[in-house]
Amino acid sequence: MEKLFSYGTLRSKQIQMQIFKKVLVGTPDQLLGYKLKSLQIEEEFGMADYVVAIPSENTEENIHGVVFNVSNADLAKVDLFESNSYRRVQVKLKSGTIAWVYTENK
């Protein structure tokens, strides 16, 4: 199993059902040294507002979220769900857990 840290839409049970056909059980955690940035993504019915994690110059900043256990197949589904505005990287969370997170695609 892989670990996936979510700070946004992937925490929604509705979105989880859409992507995984199940609701995930997660554990609260924090992503240290990152902050959230507003992001507009064009969707089928126009522009939508989202947030994206970006590295912070302030190492004390953090993002609260949830860590989920997911399979490699689940990760592939999320890769398809996330737009080209995001990229998946591995990070170390406050708990010491190594997890995947979607950050700004630069």
Please give the largest β-sheet.
3 strands, antiparallel
As for the CATH topology, it is: Hypothetical upf0131 protein ytfp
What amount of the residues lies in strands? over 45%
State Rg.
Answer: 13 Å
Shape: globular
Domain tally: 1
Under the CATH scheme, the architecture is: Roll
Outline the low-pLDDT stretches.
Answer: none
Which structural class do you get from the secondary structure elements? alpha+beta
- Total count of strands: 7
Strand order of the largest sheet: 1-5-2
SSE topology string = EHEEEEHEE
The CATH class name reads Alpha Beta
At the fourth CATH level, what is the homologous superfamily?
Gamma-glutamyl cyclotransferase-like
Mean pLDDT: 90
Total of DSSP H or I helical runs spanning 4+ residues = 2
Termini distance? 27 Å
Percent in helix? 10-25%
Key attributes of the depicted protein:
106 residues; alpha+beta; Hypothetical upf0131 protein ytfp; three-stranded antiparallel sheet; 7 strands; globular
